[in-house]
Specification:
By secondary structure, the chain is an alpha+beta fold. It contains 6 helices and 19 strands. A hairpin with a 2-residue loop joins β2 and β3. α3 packs across α5. The longest helix has 24 residues. The protein starts with a strand and ends with a strand. The N terminus and C terminus are likely disordered. One of its GO terms (molecular function) is ubiquitin protein ligase activity.
Length: 261
């Protein structure tokens, strides 16, 4: 915990009705030790942005700058002289780097999908870990690294990502290999998907038919088979498929009117 200020506050007994005397025993006007409470204030709350806080800052600002007394080192990444208290060394080695270079190095490794990060010096046995670097890493970078390590511990057969591009959340299938229903819903976007094919739910085809159509002609072939099955018609002008849901058999195209049904 941070530094604290201890303030001794006199403890006063409650005044009884018709009595005004105090039951405090004092020595030279100072309360005895057993008759005081200890009240703790943190320096931040004690100087709560008030005039006293400004006066306190002004008082300490006049102290001599001692940054020149701090030992310095040369960062092996940016090759610049940095204060030693702005450094971090890798675990299991003696190489020192400035904090900003470590942050940039970790971010670049995660961009390359490298989650087991070693010392930048080639062949060095030093390593970096999220908890070890936590004090200097931005929160989003720390969480990203931790999530990547957690995902790496999940078997590939049990994990996949939501097939909807605007979601793509990681889904862990604990029932992989079991003969259960393949239709599920994404826990995040709540849309239906196929666990076996790992695609949005193909409501008009079973998994075998879907895979066969995709293999033969991709999504175009799948669309043609779906149009044939549902008796969709194609506009002879714009070539869009049209499904009749209600009304008469006449459908007006944006170019010209055709009787499609």
């Amino acid at each position: 915990m941070g530094n604290k200020l201890v303030v001794l506050v006199p403890k006063c007994n409650k005044l009884k009705k018709h009595k005004k005397q105090r039951n405090l025993s004092t020595t030279n006007g100072i309360p005895q030790q057993e008759e005081v409470d200890q009240v703790y204030f943190s320096p931040k709350s004690f100087f709560n942005g008030s005039i006293e806080a400004q006066q306190y800052d002004d008082a300490i600002s006049g102290q001599p700058d001692r940054t020149d007394d701090i030992p310095k080192f040369v960062c092996e990444i940016c090759v610049e002289s940095q204060p030693l208290n702005y450094s971090l060394n890798c675990k299991c080695c003696s190489h020192f780097y400035c904090c900003q270079c470590i942050v940039n190095y970790v971010a670049s490794k995660l961009d390359d999908n490298v989650i087991r990060i070693s010392c930048p010096v080639s062949g060095c046995a030093g390593i970096l870990e999220p908890e070890y670097c936590r004090m200097i890493l931005p929160l989003d970078l720390f969480n990203r690294w931790g999530n990547a390590l957690c995902e790496s511990g999940i078997a590939a057969s049990k994990k996949f990502y939501c097939p909807y591009k605007d979601c793509s959340i990681l889904i862990v299938n604990d029932r992989a290999g079991q003969d259960l229903l393949v239709k599920e819903w994404c826990p995040y976007c709540r849309r239906a998907l196929c666990l076996r094919c790992r695609v949005p739910w193909h409501s008009n085809f079973d998994c075998a038919t879907y895979r066969k159509l995709i293999k033969r002609g991709g999504h175009d072939r799948l669309l043609m088979e779906l149009a044939k099955k549902l008796k969709w018609r194609k506009c002879p002008k714009c070539k869009y498929y049209v499904e009749k849901s209600e009304g008469c058999f006449s459908m007006r195209c944006r170019y010209i009117s055709f009787s499609l049904f």
